[in-house]
Amino acid sequence: MLWWLSGIYLIFVTLCAFGVGGYIAGRMRTPLNTTAAEIEGSDGMHGLITWGLAVVIAAVMALGVAATATPALSPSGGSAGASLSVAGENIIASELDELFRANHPIADREYRRAEAARILLKSSSHAGVTNPDRRYLYAMVESAVGVTPDESMPRVDHAITASAQALHRARVAAVLQAFFVGAALFVGAAVAWLSAMEGGKDREAGTFPVFRSRRHA
């Protein structure tokens, strides 16, 4: 439910932003001495240009933030393994906490969590966690936590099941987010075009929407 509300809010904010930007682009454009159809088309193109520039700037800013944040979040030692570890820590952090829960300090906890995360991320794949990886997790938990095989096996099996569910929810959320972003951009382009045309009409008439509504009241 939260993802649907977030998506609707994203579309609403996008429509408002592109609507205002398109209107300003059409309103501030230099007037042309040509046909009405050509004027409307030129105003609409200026709205699309505003939409395109906004999308490009937002993408560049997002890439810059991602490039800055990833080295700070990634543990040391290898780019590919580090990125997978960070993904595992973010998505299945609670499952990793349950997996290595103990009553005494654990040496190299961060590395063990990162290694276990890379294994548990396989739980969402078609093959799932293989038997060798499962046995390795059994031994890792027994060594790190100090439990017996009878205690480590159900703990690992529960962590694998819970991780698969968490990864599935994350995948669904990512699909919904991508859908809402695409819908917002598509509708935003149309809104920017129409708003720019409306701004062009007000430019030609020499009025603003608020003044025009009061005059006709």
Q: Share of helix among residues?
A: over 70%
Average pLDDT rating = 79
| Through-space gap between termini | 42 Å
Low-confidence stretches: 72-82
What is the overall number of helices? 8
Order of helices and strands: HHHHHHHH
Number of domains: 1
From the alpha carbons, calculate the radius of gyration and give it in angstroms. Answer: 27 Å
β-strand number:
0
Strand content: under 5%
Structural class: mainly alpha
Main beta-sheet strand count, sense and barrel state: none
Shape: rod-shaped
Q: Care to describe what's here?
A:
Helix 2 (36-73) packs antiparallel against helix 7, helix 3 crosses helix 5 (109-120) and helix 6 (131-145) crosses helix 7. The chain has helices at residues 2-28, 36-73, 79-91, 93-99, 109-120, 131-145, 149-205, 209-216. The chain is built from 8 helices and no strands.
